[in-house]
Design goal:
heterodimer, A: 11 helices, 3% strand, B: mainly alpha, 16 helices, 74% helix
């Protein structure tokens, strides 16, 4: 057994896991406040990463200009999407809402591939040093940055929901839309804000992953990987999404490790989370931290 | 019953439950259905290869789409893994034929039954969960089955794919579009009749009750688990038959064909056609099969010498599918079947619509 490889993979798992956690948080944010299951979460990452890439490479803007511009673009994008497509869906059955986000995902994925081509493209270098040595492990600088960014986002979410006016309004809306509305909260604004925040933060994660692996359509697969994460953590729990992200990140790396050492099946890295998903749904459908739906007739 | 309807109808007036439950609501509808089948029987004599190919595609996808409509439209369960069952049917039929020497004629229904068995198995967890959780569970089953297709060399031939022999009946090989058209048409008629009849039975009504309000249904004595699993099984059976027809038509089944994209296309057929409508599944399939063709035609019309546009054709097709789903859900959530009903109602009372 190769312990060095094992620790390296666990560390990788934790780093990738925090990113899953961030994306899952965005997903949960939308689900919690608007009850929409967003199958197009991965496309947010994709669009964000490509927009930033275009700003840096095509328009040759420096990173500190191009990156904020990307975030502004995503803000507008998120709000526009909510207003044009998701607002007519309020009150429709769940299948329609799911399908509309699937449609969006298909639409944007092919649109982006059309504009930018199907090949992986690398980001321009942002850091001088490729990787740093921490306690005998080689870790890429971009990974460390992603870890730092993820933790900052998580703390930001915590503060936002705990103290800010908008955050409190969102929590109230998530709890009960009618009561929130009767208390003077504009549910429309909350919905738009949820989509905007989710788009911006996802784009941030997309840019970080793009810096490490390059940008390609494969980014949108993270939007699918989010499902095992949120099912494990609970669909409506922000804490659950972070814990779930870490667990799934480590799990897929461990599965990869076991596979390379003993099993030799191949492709375990991508499939293991889905096996985990099915098992969780059988045992504990509402996840670790999710609230069980109570239905009244 | 025919005497109850005069030559010029002024609405539909039913006096018995029996007349309300007929497959064809009016004698005219029955005559139109029989006449259209008659016309279709003549189609291979007139149409060329291109149109026959489209008809055959509509046939096998239509069967699978009806299966999906039974689970999504009638039972209210969401399945994102229909393509995997479609693929399973194709592989199973080829596998039975290649390994056990059973003629293709019997392989197709057998593949349907085996796919149904797998569907029932997948349906067991589906009996416990619903709505969104079920959508995600079936999404996982889609990926797991896709992975299985890619690695199970003994069953699917792995990355190389599996060969499927052509359909034969009494030593007559049906390996061209012209003859295979009849095979597909036969199955379409059987499966659609079975589908419409299913909804007139006790089980069919139970499905609809589960969809409309599952708690009330349970209180009325409907076994939720049983019907949820059963609807999954039936839908897999349809997918299996459709897949097997697909496999023996192409003569070659590759693991790459049955991705999430195809599952989404099946869902799109059901939604565009109309949830909970048997003919809607067919309308949706026709729409979804023709849409890429229309796009291709449009692109060639606009810029046959514009190479950038022709290269982007694959993307344009996908964009159009995504856009069609979104626009239909926003502007016509009840699908084409609803539109068709409105047109019929308009003409039923024409010109005195009050």
């Amino acid at each position: 057994m190769n312990f060095e490889l094992l620790t390296q993979m666990v560390v990788n798992g934790i780093i990738v896991g925090t990113l899953y956690g961030v994306v899952a948080m965005c997903f949960v944010l939308i689900y919690k406040s608007t009850r929409v299951v967003n199958f197009a979460q991965g496309e947010f990452l994709l669009i964000g990463a490509w927009t930033c890439w275009a700003m840096l490479v095509k328009f040759e803007l420096p990173f500190y200009v191009g990156f904020p511009l990307t975030l502004v673009f995503m803000l507008v994008f998120g709000i526009a999407l909510q207003m044009l497509v998701l607002r007519p869906m309020i009150g429709e059955p769940i299948i329609s809402v799911i399908m509309v986000t699937i449609g969006l995902s298909m639409f944007f994925q092919s649109l982006v591939s059309w504009i930018f081509g199907g090949y992986t493209k690398a980001y321009p270098k942002v850091f001088d040093t490729e990787s740093v040595n921490i306690a005998g492990l080689q870790i890429e600088t971009a990974y460390i940055m992603s870890l730092v960014v993820s933790v900052i986002i998580m703390v930001g979410f915590y503060v936002f929901f705990k103290y800010s006016r908008m955050g409190l309004a969102m929590r109230a809306t998530a709890f009960n839309q009618q009561i929130a509305q009767s208390l003077g909260i504009s549910v429309k604004h909350v919905f738009a804000a949820a989509w905007a925040i989710s788009a911006v933060v996802s784009a941030l994660a997309g840019v970080v992953i793009g810096m490490v692996n390059g940008v390609s359509s494969a980014l949108s697969f993270i939007g699918i990987k989010v499902f095992p994460v949120v099912i494990l953590g609970g669909m409506d729990s922000i804490v659950g999404s972070i814990v779930g992200g870490l667990l799934i990140g480590v799990l897929e790396n461990l599965a990869e490790f076991c596979d390379s050492q003993w099993l030799h099946l191949g492709n375990m890295y991508n499939i293991a989370p889905f096996y985990a998903l099915v098992i969780i749904l059988m045992i504990k459908p509402y996840g670790l931290f999710g609230t069980k739906d109570i239905e009244r007739i | 019953m025919a005497s109850a309807h005069s030559r010029m109808r002024c609405g539909e007036f039913r006096t018995t439950y029996q007349s309300d439950m007929t497959i064809f609501p009016t004698p005219l509808a029955r005559r139109v259905a029989i006449a259209s089948v008659g016309l279709l029987l003549l189609a291979p004599l007139v149409l060329n290869q291109y149109y026959l190919n489209l008809f055959i595609q509509i046939g096998y996808y239509g069967i699978a789409a009806l299966g999906l409509n039974i689970v999504v439209g009638f039972t209210g369960q969401i399945s994102l893994g229909h393509a995997a069952f479609f693929g399973l049917g194709a592989f199973t039929s080829a596998w039975i034929n290649n390994n056990f020497g059973i003629p293709v004629f019997f392989c197709i229904p057998l593949a349907g039954l085996l796919t149904m068995a797998v569907g029932l198995l997948v349906g067991i967890p589906a009996g416990r969960i619903k709505g969104l959780y079920l959508a995600i569970a079936t999404l996982a089953s889609q990926y797991i089955l896709e992975d299985f297709f890619a690695r199970a060399d003994w069953f699917t031939g792995g990355s190389a794919g599996a060969m499927a022999s052509p359909f034969t009946i009494f030593g007559y090989v049906m390996n061209n579009d012209r003859s295979y058209f009849y095979v597909v048409l036969f199955y379409v008629i059987i499966m659609y009749l079975a589908g419409s009849n299913l909804l007139r039975t006790r089980d069919g009504r139970a499905f609809i009750a589960v969809r409309d309000h599952y708690l009330s249904a349970e209180i009325m004595g409907i076994n939720l688990n049983k019907y949820r699993i059963l609807s999954f099984g039936i839908s897999s059976f349809y997918a299996g038959i459709g897949g097997a027809l697909f496999g023996h038509y192409l003569g070659f089944v590759s693991a790459e064909g049955f991705t999430l994209l195809l599952s989404i296309q099946f869902l799109a057929m059901v939604i565009i056609g109309g949830l909970g409508s048997v003919m809607g599944a067919m309308f949706g399939t026709v729409f979804m099969v023709l849409l890429p063709q229309v796009m291709e035609f449009g692109v060639h019309l606009v810029g046959s010498n514009n190479s950038a546009l022709t290269q982007a054709l694959a993307y344009i097709k996908e964009i159009s599918i995504g856009l069609a789903i979104i626009l239909f859900l926003i502007f016509e959530p009840d699908g084409l079947a609803h539109r068709w009903k409105m047109i019929k109602n308009y003409w039923k009372l024409y010109p005195f619509s009050y």
